[in-house]
Each structure stands twice: as C-alpha cells, then as structure tokens.
Amino acid sequence: MTPGKKVTLNDLPLREDLRGKSPYGAPQLAVPVRLNTNENPHPPTQALIDDVTSSVREVAGDLHRYPDRDAVALRTDLAAYLSAQTGVDVSVENVWAANGSNEILQQLLQAFGGPGRSAIGFVPSYSMHPIIAGGTRTEWLPTPRRDDFTIDIPAAAALFAARAPDVTFLTSPNNPTGQSLEPDELAALVDAAPGIVVVDEAYAEFSDRPSAAVLLPTHGGKLVVSRTMSKAFAFAGGRLGYLAAAPAVVEALQLVRLPYHLSSLTQAAARASLRHAGATLGSVALLRAERERVVAALAAAGYDVVPSDANFVLFGRFADAARAWQAFLDRGVLIRDVGIAHRLRVTIGTPEENDAFLNVAGDVLVEEKKKA
Fold first, then answer.
1. Please, which pLDDT band fits residue 372 given cuts at 50, 70 and 90?
2. Which of 31, 79, 250, 346 has its CA 20 to 30 A from that of 316?
3. pLDDT tens, 64-115?
4. Do the strands 95-98 and 241-244 form a parallel or antiparallel pair, or are they unpaired?
5. pLDDT tens digits for 157-183?
6. Where are the beta strands (DSSP E) in the chain?
7. pLDDT band for position 2 (50/70/90)?
8. Would you state the pLDDT for residue 30?
C-alpha cells in the first residue's frame, strides 16, 4: 500500500460476498418534520425520565463489575409484560433479550442459519433481514408477495417444500407495507415451514390482531416471536429487543451471544421503561387514531393507500417515487423511499407533524397531476 494513500474498501481484504453491498441506512437530516424511521414521536414522561435516571444511578456504582450476563431480572419483567399483553403465559425461561431486535435476529441466524443454510423472507419486507443473512453467511431466498403485498399461503407452502429453508422470516405487521397476518395464516405457514419460523412483531402493539405468541403452546418447538421496545415503548435510543420462544431456543442463543452483551445501564433503563408501560403505551392509542386520520385524508386527496396496522403508512402512486420523495423533502418533510416502485412510506407523527405532512402531500399530488 502506498504511504499516504487513502485506504478504501477495495484496499482491504474484505470478504468477497460483502463487496458491492450497501449498509443499512435511513437519512438523518435536520428538517422541520421527520417522519421516516417509524419512531414514536411522543417523548418519555418526566416520571419515566426520573425513574431511568434513578435506576441508572443505582447501577453506576458497580460499573467496574460485569452486568448479569443472562439479564434474568429484565427477562422476568419482559415475560410479565408479554404475558399481560398477549394473554399467553410466558415465563423467564421463554424470553431472551438483546441490543435491539436486530441483535435478536442476528443471534437467531448465528444459531440456526450460517454457511450451507438458508433463510426465506416475503418481500418487500424489513430490509435488515437480507443484510443480517449476508453477514452470517446465510443464503437469502427473497420471495415476492402478491401485488397487494399479502402472502399467498398455498404458494408459500409449496416453496417451503421445494427449497426447505432453515429459517423463515414472517413480519406482522409487515414493514414497510403495514399488513398483519391472521392467526390461522400464521399457523398454516408455521406448519408448512420445515425449520425455525421467526415472526417479527416490531409493531405488534399498534395492531388489534392477536400476537403470534398465541401459537407458542402448540408450535413452540419451531416458533420464535421477536419484538422490540423501540417503537411502541418510545425506547429507540435505549436499544432493547426481545423474543419469546421455547426454552431450548433461549439455550441455543446463549451459545452464540457475546459475553455480557447487555450492559447494566441498558438493563436498568429497560426495566424502568417497563414499569411505566401503561403511561407510555397510552401514546399508542393516539397514534392509531392519527393513523386512521392520515389514511382517510390521503385517500380523500386521491392517493392509493395500503391498509396498515402499524405506525406508518405506505402510499402512492407516484410516477417517480424518488422525485416525489425529494419534493416532500424540499418542503421540509422527510419521509422514506423504501424502494417500492411508485410508493413512499410515512411514519405517523404528532397531530401537528401529520398536518404538515398532509399539507405537503396535497401540494405534491398537484405537481404529480401536472406532470402526468
């Protein structure tokens, strides 16, 4: 290497299967209205802030010691929350936690995927699934959804039989389209899948559909229900994901997790957040009501809107989605181009943010009609 030369990726002995790939990224821009990353727009209450501060202070004196590597107290609290929220009796042995649901998914593929194994997903869906598959050397089998973004259950069962994936990813509600799977659809897919089935429920609290957890008593040998505190709990900065599964799955993940992967600070803050679940989740009802208002307003304006059970909405149709995204940004509203032709995704924000978005959406639609 020439002295003084700037080192680039091409100069590094990078794995060949990673060359040409792009990292996950959503624009983080300083704009008046930021509705592109599906965050809960309502900040934590002062009571929660005080509890987090106090809880972190309590453990700060022991920062010279490693944290509880199995996060037993946190997992116990998560099990109690999940049991109450889903109506399914879940114990600490059924629950595992990590730094965001992405680390949960990574650990699952480290344990059940890897070289010589495959994972299947129904696209469009969460963009991190193929990225994590690539990072763990798991073959990724993207399978298109129907034109209305639903899953063809019989066709999926036939594909399972033909490809025999080791891991199947299902998302309910699905990001970026917003639709949920019904329990009978989930059961049919889990029955047909030959390997582990991961139901990604990052947005479950925004939906009135039953959780896939209702299938754990009958399908626990192969079913994993993954969740996050980033969305409904407004804990995106805290980075806490978790899952519910058979105790054997939890044991399997302990084989691949890094030692002491959850810091004492994260565990303390997450437990404090769970203590305030009632107040925090009150914002979910507000966001669901705002979602319905935004959907109705977009439809009334002439947009084609995909029904959503989440805290975001996929809408269109635009002649050029990238151009429309820029038109929103030029007017101070940042939404998301998720790579679906003719459509964009908007996160549900505060009433004021939603009003600003809808006003811009009207202007953009007028421009679209002029250019048609």
1. low
2. 31
3. 999 999 999 999 999 999 999 999 999 999 999 999 999 999 999 999 999 9
4. antiparallel
5. 999 999 999 999 999 999 999 999 998
6. 33-34, 95-98, 118-123, 139-144, 167-171, 196-200, 223-228, 241-244, 304-305, 312-316, 333-334, 343-347
7. low
8. 85
Total residue length of the chain: 372
Residue 141's pLDDT band (boundaries 50, 70, 90)? Answer: very high
Alpha helices (H) in 182-246, listed in sequence order = 183-192, 216-219
Which alpha helices (H) appear in 118-225, and where do they start and end? Answer: 128-135, 153-163, 183-192, 216-219
**Per the structure block, which two tokens stand in for 148?**
């209305």
Residue-wise pLDDT for 297-337, tens only, equals 999 999 999 999 999 999 999 999 999 999 999 999 999 99
CA 281 – CA 13 distance, rounded (Å): 47
Among residues 67, 69, 94, 68, the alpha carbon closest in space to that of 81 is found at 94
- Cβ contact 281:40 at 8 Å: no
> Do the bridges between strand 118-123 and strand 167-171 make them parallel or antiparallel, or are there none, so unpaired?
parallel
Rounded distance, CA 67 to CA 62, Å? 9
Tokens matching residue 251 = 């044991």
Tokens of 47: 């009571």
- Do the beta carbons of residue 222 and residue 58 sit within 8 Å? no
Q: How far apart are CA 232 and CA 239, in angstroms?
A: 13
Token pair in block for residue 102: 């992405």
Please, are residues 319 and 309 in contact by the beta-carbon 8 Å criterion? Answer: no
Bridging pattern class, strands 196-200 and 118-123: unpaired
HSE-up of 217 (CA within 13 Å, CB side)?
Answer: 8
Whose tokens are 């008593």? That residue is: 217
Element holding 101 (H helix, E strand): helix 100-112
Query: Which residue in the block uniquely carries the two structure tokens 């969305």?
Result: 231
- pLDDT score of 25: 67
